[in-house]
Amino acid sequence: MAMPMPIDTPFLEVKGVSKTFDGVVRALDDVSIAARQNEIVGVVGENGAGKSTLMKILVGVYPPDKGELYYWGRKVQFPRNPKEATKRGISIVYQEKGVIPLLMVYQFLFLGHEDKYVKFTKLQIDKMKKHARQILEEHHVKCNAEDFMYDLPLSIQKMVEIARAILSVRLERKDDNVTPIIILDEPSAPLSVEERRGLFRDILDMKKNASFIFVSHIIPEVIEFTDRVHVLRDGKLVAHYDLSKEKITEEDLFKAIVGRESSEYIYKPEVNRVVSEQVVLTVKNLTKKGCYYDISFDLHKDECIGIFGPAGSGKSEIIKTIAGLISFEVGVLIVGGQNVKADELPHLRLGRGIGYFSGETGKELFLNWPITKNISLVNIKKMLRKLIPMISFSAEKKMAEKIVKMLRIKASSVNTDCYSLSGGSK
Questions:
Q1: What is the distance between the alpha carbons of residues 146 and 155, in angstroms, rounded to a whole number?
Q2: Which contacts qualify for 56-63: CB closer than 8 Å, 24 or more apart?
Q3: Residue 243: Cβ-neighbour burial (10 angstroms; 0-12, 13-18, 19+)
Q4: Helical packing angle, 193-206 and 154-173, nearest 10°
Q5: Domains by residue range for the chain, with CATH
Q6: Residue 183: φ, ψ to 5°
Q7: Do the Cβ atoms of 183 and 90 come closer than 8 Å?
Q8: Sign of torsion, CA 339 344 348 354?
Q9: Is 398 exposed, middle or buried, given 0-12, 13-18 or 19+ CB atoms closer than 10 A?
Q10: How far apart are CA 163 and CA 395, in angstroms?
Q11: Sheet containing 338-339: which strands, arranged edge to edge?
């Protein structure tokens, strides 16, 4: 009869993991972390610290150059792909929205596992819906099994993603009592403050049936919601805190992450609030029914204005209207002294000098293209040779190098494909 494992035995443990890309970039250097049953383990670090690389090794996206993996104290092989990782009990929810908007909740939950609900070549839809309702109730996900994913708030979509990750482990292992390990790769990044707190309340409740590895840049979240924290810096493990035994401050964790006090690290320039009298953008009585009503403001040259409000207040829709992604119904929009049409397309607004960044890098980058081509794609005219309409590769490289340096993007070269960059560098 097998002896029961001690309560402090790591559920999952990696030892001495190293990974190098392109023979140059040392993403991970001898990193070891562990997760115990029914806990939330934080993994923190700056952009390019190696957090996402480590997570992708755990779910079989990348093989490690060296290292060992232990499951309940027993040495096992690293998974060769995400499906194999799921069979081991490990699944991941990425930062980028991973839902399929036009699917209903029950369809998304069982996507890829429909074969488990086939009888006599017929899909048992009623059984799937019933099981979906049970899953949603178990994990306190506040939606209906037949809701469309696009209709759900972002925080609920993220909860459905997490529920699906847990369900996938159970279905692959054919065991409803298995404790899955769910990796959350910056799940709160696209959410508002209220949505973040709601998400973490639900995750704390889900901890009864799962263990979580939580990757984040947001220090207060990590201190408030995790049980233990591993700190990575430049691919190395530099600190580990057990928050049930140690009391650490945000400053302590910040110093571990960057290697310096925040006062040394953060440059705080004197803000010059004197702006030009020149108005570059005017929004006057703008209305989009169901989104926002009677919005007016001016933006001056050399000025930065903020639009703040709770989830559903219409702030995102105002920004999308200015960028040309959605139209307005009433009011006036003036850019550079010219009235613009309500249905003017985004590329025309771009020509007027209005750029838009949503934060969803999966939609805004060609991930299999290098940095150079992603940058030159929207700067083609600047890349052309003077006499013949051909791209100057030297001009393309020069512009990319300038932007990489200016934004401190961590990459082995400007020819690095964007899929291999860290989330922050993307």
A1: 17
A2: 57/14, 57/17, 57/19, 57/28, 58/12, 58/14, 58/85, 58/90, 58/92, 58/183, 58/213, 59/85, 59/90, 59/91, 59/92, 59/183, 60/84, 60/85, 62/19
A3: middle
A4: 20
A5: 12-265 (3.40.50.300), 279-351 (3.40.50.300), 361-420 (no CATH)
A6: -90, 125
A7: yes
A8: positive
A9: middle
A10: 47
A11: 292-300, 279-288, 330-335, 338-339
Please report the pLDDT score of residue 7 as a whole number.
52
**Enclosing H/E stretch for 92:** strand 90-93
pTM: 0.72
How far apart CA 132 and CA 127 sit, in angstroms, is 8
What would you report as the CA-atom Rg of the chain, rounded to the nearest whole angstrom? 24
Beta bridge partners of 70: 13, 75
Question: How many CB atoms are located within 10 Å of the residue 260 CB?
Answer: 11
Query: What's the length of the chain?
Result: 426
**3-state secondary structure (DSSP) of residue 399:** helix
Note whether 309 and 315 are within 8 A (CB): yes
Q: Phi/psi at 224 (nearest 5 deg)?
A: -75, -35
Question: E-assigned strands of 192-227?
Answer: 211-216
pLDDT tens, position by position, 132-148: 999 999 888 889 999 99
Q: 133-138 contacts: CB < 8 A, separation 24 or more?
A: 135/109, 135/163, 135/167, 136/105, 136/163, 138/209
Residue 378 Cα distances to 279, 344, 347, angstroms: 26, 19, 10
Q: Residue 216: which of 27, 36, 43, 357 has the closest Cα?
A: 43
327-346 b/e (C-beta count within 10 Å ≥ 16 → b): ebeebebebeeeebebeeee
Return the SS3 of 36.
coil
Q: What are the tokens at 265?
A: 């690290």
pLDDT tens sequence across 300-319: 998 899 998 876 788 889 99
Using the structure block, give the residue that is written with the tokens 């009433």: 330
pLDDT tens track for 339-396 = 999 999 998 998 899 999 887 777 788 988 999 999 988 888 888 887 777 888 888 9
Alpha helix locations (H) across 238-344? 250-258, 262-265, 315-323
3-state SS class at 30: strand
